[in-house]
Amino acid sequence: MTEPVGTLDARFSDPSATARPWSDVDKTLTYAKISWLSTVRSDGRPHVTPLPAVWAYGALHFCTGAREQKGKNLEINPYVALTTGTAEQHEGLDVVVEGAAAQVTDESRLLELAGLWKDRHAWNFRVRNGLFTQDGEHDALVFAVTPAKILAFGKGEPFSQTRFLFS
Q1: What global pTM score does this model have?
Q2: What is the CA radius of gyration of the chain?
Q3: Which end of the chain is more exposed for a tag (fewer CB within 10 A), N or C?
Q4: What is the DSSP letter of 33?
């Protein structure tokens, strides 16, 4: 993946701010312990839930049971937003990833992702029939969100909003 270049949105940034470098965004996504997934229900109401996600291969990955609310929502509308960052008000970086969630079923990719879930979140998934499974009882669909847009909110002085667009 070519390293994206961000554009500072001066409307929402301190006059002395500059665009945040991609390396800051990449680090935040790679080391995040929890993200918040926003999906839309069939009647248009939002659904938001915390979950561990894995940033790899130019996409943010998450998993869900097919019968969970987020799984049902994704059957109807693949567009999501995932947010992560820090609870601190005056320091750190918050990141919003927007895009369409696509199910990952390739066994080799799922095996690689299962290894990353174990390394980053201490979750032990096995791969079976294009799904993650735990103890052979709890199957989970795995999704990849290739970003259409990422917003990075620098907190503290100077505060900033940087936009990264992807084609």
Answers
A1: 0.94
A2: 17
A3: C
A4: S
Contact yes or no for 149/166 (Cβ under 8 A) = yes
Q: Left (φ > 0), alpha (ψ -120 to 50) or beta: where does 121 sit?
A: alpha
Distance from C-alpha of 12 to C-alpha of 2, rounded to nearest angstrom? 26
**Listed residue (31, 24, 33) closest to 3, CA to CA:** 24
Determine the topology of domain 7-165 in CATH. Pnp Oxidase; Chain A (2.30.110)
Q: What is the pLDDT of residue 2?
A: 77
* pLDDT tens string 114-149: 999 999 999 999 999 999 998 777 899 999 999 999
Quick one: pLDDT at residue 162?
A: 98
Query: H/E/C letters for each residue in 58-84?
Result: CEEEEEECCCCHHHHHHHHCCEEEEEE
E-strand ranges in 52-157 read: 54-56, 59-64, 79-84, 93-104, 126-128, 131-134, 138-154
The Cβ-side half-sphere exposure at 72, using a 13 Å CA radius, reads 10
Residue entry with tokens 């965004």: 25
Ranges of each domain in the chain: 7-165
